[in-house]
Design a protein that fits this description.
Layout (H helix, E strand, L loop, with lengths): L3 E2 L2 E2 H6 L4 H14 L6 E4 L2 E5 L2 H7 L7 H13 L4 E6 L3 E6 L1
Antiparallel strand pairs: 1-2, 3-4, 4-6, 5-6
């Protein structure tokens, strides 16, 4: 078995029942969070990153998924403890994530 896919441990991903789309989303998150374009926020002494669902869909048209499907995929990654999520309601509703 190839050890990594998109820089992530394939055996652990199989154990967590992640799919290739999850890998692509995670790779986007890791790559984008390292840029100045990503909005960062300190919440409960942890650094989170604002994820605009439409932005992911625009950057990753290869996924061919809807905004709702993307939301469910991210929610699944949170449930599997791959990501952490916080919703911030200040002049709108914003989803922040961290690995």
């Amino acid at each position: 078995m190839k050890y990594t896919i998109e820089g992530f441990n394939q055996a652990k991903a199989v154990e967590l029942e992640l799919c290739v789309a999850d890998f692509i989303i995670l790779r986007w998150f890791v790559d984008f969070s390292g840029t100045e374009r990503m909005v960062k926020r300190l919440i409960n002494e942890k650094e989170y990153y604002w994820v605009k669902y439409e932005g992911i869909l625009e950057d990753l048209p290869i996924l061919s998924i809807t905004k709702d499907t993307l939301y469910r995929r991210l929610k699944g990654l949170v449930e599997k403890e791959v990501l952490e999520h916080v919703t911030v309601k200040e002049a709108g509703t914003f989803s922040f994530y961290r690995l």
